[in-house]
Amino acid sequence: MYASRVRAALRGWGGVGAMAVLCALALAFALLLPCTQPRHDDDARTAGPGLADGSQARAGDCQDSEAQKQTLSPSGADGPTIDAIKSRTGAKRKLVVGVDQNSYRWGYRNPNTETAQLEGFDIDLVHRIAEDILGDPDAVQFKAIPTSQRIPAIKDGRVDMVVRTMTITCARMRDVAFSAPYFKTGQQVLAPRSSPVTGYNGTLAHKRICTASGSTAYGKLKADRAAGHLPASTDISTTVPNQLDCLVRLQLGEVDAVVTDGALAASQAAQDPTVALKGDAFTTEYYGVAMSKDATDLVRRVNRVLVDYRGDGWQASYDRWLSATMGKDSKPSEPPTPQYLRKS
Length: 344
Known about the structure:
Helix content is about 35%, strand content about 20%. The chain is an alpha/beta fold. Strands 7-3-8-17-9 form a five-stranded mixed β-sheet. Helix 8 (about 215-225) links the parallel strand 12 and strand 13 (about 235-240). The radius of gyration is 20 Å and the shape is globular.
């Protein structure tokens, strides 16, 4: 019975092993990029509501719920970071972007295409940014990076930005800068359909939970267990480099449930009929494009792209990639109106 369940799960997943191999190959590539200096440009092409004072990475009284909406005002002007990207020659004249390659419908390699090309909601946004900066939507070097390496890849200069279902948080803003939010989501529980787990509640007592290393899910579970909001017997010791690894652990019976962004969990549940979302989302979070704290001009440029993309492109991408798993009504996933900061 156990073996048949595993075989059924793996069939539902549609080739986890093949995707894992592709992921390992992609991770073998590395490109060190030159560091750039900040540019304090308050160029106006600002859209949306009024401006707020201060820096996005204010550590003292930072609240995630507000920080997720705060970013630098949009600008179409070039600066040192963008100049460095444009100055690359030949085959290297590309935007280098850290992405996922195994999150179905977000950033994943489609095995049914000739070159197993990357596709998904995040990938569409990357192409739009590349088109705006370099004039070519395909002028992109994709780098597959695990969840735990998103911030190090930016700080080490291995990528220009990360577009990888990355939640904006105060803690992360101490290390990187974020664009305006481009998607709304929240943490949810994923478990086998037959599981007695009903959601983020007491049914997780004595259950083994898997989360990705460095994820907001792990931080939430750790804090809630310490505060007594999660049963003390809940085992949260299983963490993995990539969120997809949690699904594999669940399919193999090594854990009892997974906690991850509901947007990702919905896509995984759509692939594997043996698992399902349990209960409602228990947090509110927003995805943003992450960049170096020094790349002020790049942050502003991405924000300008997002203003245009929200009006023409975002909905089409949602309809193509996410409506089948998250529902035709995109309003629950729409990002909030940004609060643009006066100072950089």
